[in-house]
Amino acid sequence: MLFPYGKQRIEESKGFVRWLLGHVPYHFYLALRQEIYLARVRLRYRIKGSPFNGGKELLVNLGCGTTGKPNWVNVDMAGGPNVNLICDLRKRIPLADGSARGIFCEHFLEHLDYSEEVPFFISECHRILRPGGVIRIIVPDGEAYLRAYCNGGWEELARIRPLQDGLKDYWYGNQFETRMELVNLVFRQGTEHKFAYDWETLENLLGKHGFLRISRCAFGQGELQELCVDKAARASESLYVEAVR
Predict the structure, then answer these.
(1) Phi-psi domain of 81 (left: phi exceeds 0; alpha: psi -120 through 50; beta: other)
(2) What are phi and psi of 108, to 5 degrees?
(3) Within the chain, how many helices (H) and strands (E) appear?
(4) Parallel/antiparallel/unpaired status of strands 73-76 and 85-86
(5) DSSP 3-state assignment of 236?
(6) How many angstroms separate the Cα of 41 from the Cα of each of 7, 37, 151, 195?
(7) Does residue 221 register a pLDDT over 60?
(8) What angle separates helix 142-150 from helix 179-188, to the nearest 10 degrees?
(9) DSSP letters along 76-104, please?
(10) Which of 12-21, 62-71, 122-131 has the highest mean pLDDT?
(11) How many CB atoms lie within 10 A of CB 136?
(12) Which of 53, 89, 144, 219 is the most exposed place for a label (fewest CB within 10 A)?
């Protein structure tokens, strides 16, 4: 099954959560739980502030997850290895204007709402970069997936998205029965992904927010080599874009 929610999730839950899932969809419960957690994160930041507000020439990893880089400012909504700044990236980034010389953002942008959250996030990236600073954004390549789908069959899709025997997703273990199920996993990932990007859309988005010299790059290649810390495992499905403030 792709997303075995519903009855199975209710049966696995206990107490108040089980009662709640008997009345609301599981995806609503997940969203509510996350919003409550992020409200606490925002309150904590307002009380404690940011330890990097006076920093300059920073290298910043936004939405780093569990892959924080040593000697970087690694930002995520939850703690993890090398995560040294916890905040809600849908709101103001707690770094000073022009304090960063480089921003790395890998497979995070697609988790933001395109109409409401993305414009503010990109504006914040522009604000914290110094003039001449570089942002490197990596997302699933929506165009590549659609072209592979339109080619028919599984061969091209499997080249982009690693599959195990029996059309099983290598990364998440989901069992596919149709090609559109794979496309929806990439574009939606349950309810985690909010938007699918191609080069044209990212170029337009960055240009509208004041970025210059917007370029399509490749895995491990870019204007600022220090930002080329891409995950090799995601190279086959990724779109790499850089821009200068």
Answers:
(1) beta
(2) -125, -40
(3) 8, 9
(4) parallel
(5) helix
(6) 31, 6, 45, 24
(7) yes
(8) 170
(9) ESS--TT--EE--TTS--SS-TT-EEEEE
(10) 122-131
(11) 22
(12) 53
Count other C-beta atoms under 10 Å from residue 162's C-beta. 13
- Show the tokens assigned to 22: 């008997």
Tokens of 155: 């061969």
Q: Are strands 238-244 and 212-217 parallel, antiparallel or unpaired?
A: antiparallel
Q: Return the number of other C-beta atoms located less than 10 Å from residue 212's C-beta.
A: 11
pTM for the structure as a whole: 0.90
CA distance linking residue 140 with residue 186, whole number of Å: 8
Q: What letter represents residue 92's amino acid?
A: R
Half-sphere exposure of 151 toward its Cβ, with a 13 Å CA cutoff?
Answer: 14
Taking CA atoms, 36 is separated from 17, 30, 31, 164, in Å, by: 15, 10, 9, 37
Place of tokens 């990007």: 197
* Residue among 43, 65, 64, 50 nearest 99 (CA): 50
Structure tokens at 170: 């290598």
pLDDT in tens, 90-143: 999 999 999 999 999 999 999 999 999 999 999 999 999 999 999 999 999 999
Written as six digits, the tokens of 85 are 């700044």
CA distance 128 to 137: 15
The span from the CA of 123 to the CA of 179, in Å, is 36
> Angle at the Cα of 193 (from 187 to 195), degrees rounded to 5?
65
Residues in the chain: 245
Tokens representing 243 are: 């821009």
Name the H helices within the chain.
Answer: 7-12, 15-21, 26-48, 117-128, 142-150, 155-160, 179-188, 199-208
